[in-house]
Amino acid sequence: MSHQDRQLVEAVLANAPGAFERLVREHQALCWHIVYRMARHPEDARDLCQETFLRVHQHLRQYRHESSLKSWIGRVAYNVALRYLERKQLVVFDLGEGDDGLDPIENLADGFDLETAYADRDIATRLHQAIEALPPLQRTLLTLYHLDELSIDEIAGFTGLAAGTIKSHLFRTRLRLRQQLETAYGVSP
Q: Is 3-88 a domain of CATH 1.10.1740.10?
């Protein structure tokens, strides 16, 4: 944990004026990215972000400085969003036809360059629609990795998933997107 994180946590715990607001300001974008990608409804995402920071405030004394504050808050946000999905009884992830489990896949090179596809405006629109149609977990992992450019380790810290499981989800999700774009739109990125 960084010295700045430690100082901020200590200031919040000491009820220093403006400290908690600073913590929220520094981490609200991350919280929003995680919960919005899971919930997909702006009003629900706002409520879930508020719930996340309420939990952060209530449980900050339990934070043990073993990971970065960003990772800890990301984990709280992910868990809040996951509980929301479970309450709504939504499918969190879909392994798809014929998948019998999640084997770690070390090589993510599947020939589909998500960033390049996103750069083409027409393909980007189609790709965005396909991403929005993904189950919450796959959508969240894909966008955190490719669009927010978080590392596998950071995402593992948020989700509690093993790095190999995340890589497997990313590989299969990108493969699914490529197949959808090729089949539905004749697009071959």
A: yes
Q: Could you say which DSSP state residue 60 is in?
A: G
Residue type, 61: R
What residue spans of the chain are helical by DSSP H? 3-13, 19-39, 42-59, 69-88, 114-119, 121-132, 136-146, 152-159, 163-185
* pLDDT for 95: 44
Residue given tokens 């990108």 in the structure block: 174
Domain residue limits, the chain: 3-88, 114-185
Model confidence at 53: pLDDT above 60: yes
- In CATH terms, is domain 114-185 a member of 1.10.3720.10? no
Q: Whose CA is closest to 141, among 119, 111, 161, 112?
A: 161
Average pLDDT, the chain: 81
Among 58-67, 119-128, 156-165, 176-185, name the one with the lowest average pLDDT. 119-128
